[in-house]
Amino acid sequence: MAHVLRTLSIVMIATMFVAACGRAPAPLSHDAYVWQRQWTPALREALVSSADLVRDWRVLVAQADRDGQFHVFAPDTQTLARSGRPVVLVVRIDGRLAAFDAQALAARIATLATGWPAGRVAGLEIDYDCPTARLPAYAAFLAALRPRLGAIPLSITALPTWIGSSDLDALLALPDESVLQVHAVQAPQAGLFDPAVADRWVDEFATHTRKPFRVALPTYGSRVSWNDDGSLLAVESEQAALAAGATSAELYAAPDTLLAFVKHLANDRPRGLIGVVWFRLPTADDSRAWSLATWRGVVAGHLDSRPLMVTLQPGSSADAPFDVMVDNASESDAAPPARVALPASCDVADGIDGYRLQRRDASLELIAANARPMPAHTRRSIGWVRCKAGTPLTLLPIPAQGTPVS
């Protein structure tokens, strides 16, 4: 009988072990960066109404600027408390800051973090986009900061450009977790977010860390200008206007592309990946971010997306040109068409509102140069055209580049 009981016990333990090994990982969690320094009514409303979506808020609370000056911001702690979600305090160190006193800065940051109300701080994050050559110095700074935080977990943001460095593994061993940023402005042709490139970065990053990590994904668009030599002139991500350089473009992270990418991460999750952090929390007064409803749809895993419609609208008189109209009838924001081919029966045209005319052999096309995103339930004219009688009024838009990862 004893032998039978021992055998049954071994079988039960083995069965439990196999079941545990085959158990599906926890769903990816979602955090959001609150990067705004002005706590407007729209920001407060977005934060409270979105608390059901997020695990933590990652709130910008201080910055060391390029001159080494330390600026402390004043988040609305009452609104944060009302949301009921924990807060990860984020301190940004300007990547252009060539050198700093690691001990002095660590002491200042630790004093700020430990001064927050007990039980409300879920962690501290350092956002330092330093050059790859400075990773050893960055590691020394984290080593000075880590013991000063006590029980407060430490996280850092990480850049894909660090992945090729032999110093990366040592750096990632210091914080409790890291956040890989896979959205960036690299070149006009590269856009703001490339799912195939981001997927490769995530897989490569997973081989360098033995700690949990998250992936930072964009909810915004940017107007970007380049000099004639191809160097970056300026990036504007929070306002609608920017003085254009020799080359400028509107770059946009399309919601359907990001939704597909998050589903891909969940279905083919690299070792150590535990969540997504969205940059940044959309608000009603943020003209370059998605609408709050669109972000909610992406996080929830479902968008009411319908194809954009492009039509020719007759003018007010018989000899007036047609208006080229784009309609987004869905509940979700959408990227504008990258290109609209005009019928062969049209011989004169021009683009407006971010579109320019291009002649390709004997045909005409409207090409997106600085085209704005299409918010939900929006109708917009992108050009005009003169066509012969009988021209089809429905056109075929070519989507923006960026094929979702499957």
TrEMBL record:
Any Pfam family hit: DUF3142
Signal peptide: 1-20
Cross-referenced PROSITE patterns: PROKAR_LIPOPROTEIN
InterPro entries (alphabetical): DUF3142
Keywords carried by this UniProt record: Signal
Name the UniProt record assigns to this protein: DUF3142 domain-containing protein
Taxonomic source organism: Luteibacter rhizovicinus DSM 16549
Lineage summary: Bacteria, Pseudomonadati, Pseudomonadota, Gammaproteobacteria, Lysobacterales
